[in-house]
Amino acid sequence: MAGRTVRSEQANATRELILTAAERLFAENGVYAVSNRQVSEAAGQGNNTAVGYHFGTKADLVRAIARKHSVQIERIRARHLAEIGDSTDVRDWVDCLVRPVLEHLAELGSPTWYARFCAQVMTDPALQEIMVEESLAAASLRPIIEGLNRCLPDLPGEVHAERGAMSRQLIVHMSAERERALAENTPTPRANWHDAATGLIDALLGLWLAPVTHRS
Asked: Is there a smaller number of Cβ atoms within 10 Å at the N or the C end of the chain?
C-alpha cells in the first residue's frame, strides 16, 4: 500500500514537471515547434517517452495544461460572480470576464507563461477548439453570458457573439503582451496585473457599449 502511494506521488510529481516544462516551451516557441523529447528533457526526464506515457498526444498535453489553469480561474470567477449577484451594470459582467484571468496570472508570481501559452494555442484552429471547449465547460460562463444579455437587451444576437469573440481575443493577447514584456524586463503601460485588468475592462466596456450600425 505504501509502495503504491509513493509511486502515485512520484507519478504526480513527474506530471507536474512535464506540465510546467511544456507550458514554458510552448509559450516561448509555439506548440508544434516543440517536440515531446524537448519537453521530457526540460522536465528532467531521462525517458524521452515520458510525455506520451503520462499524457498521450500533444493535444492531450495542451488540454491538461489548459485544465490545470481553468480550475484555478474558475475558483476566482465564482467568487466574483457571488459578489456581483444580479447586477444590472455591464461593467460588473465584463469584470467577471477579465479580472479572474489576470488575477490568476498575478497569483502565479513571476515569471509566468500561461498567457503566452494561450496566445500560441489560440492561433491554431485544432488546438483553439480545445481551449474553447475547456472555457465552455466552466460553470461560471453561462451566468456571465446571461448577465451581459440582461444588461444589453437591445444588442442583436450576432453582434453579441461577435463582441464576445473580440473580447476573448483582447483578453488573451493583451495578457500575453504584458507577460512577454515582463519576461523581457521591458516597460509595461500598467504597474501590475490588477491595474492591467482595470485598463482592459475599461476598453472592453467601450466595446460592449459601442453603437451598432444596422445594414440599410
From this structure: C
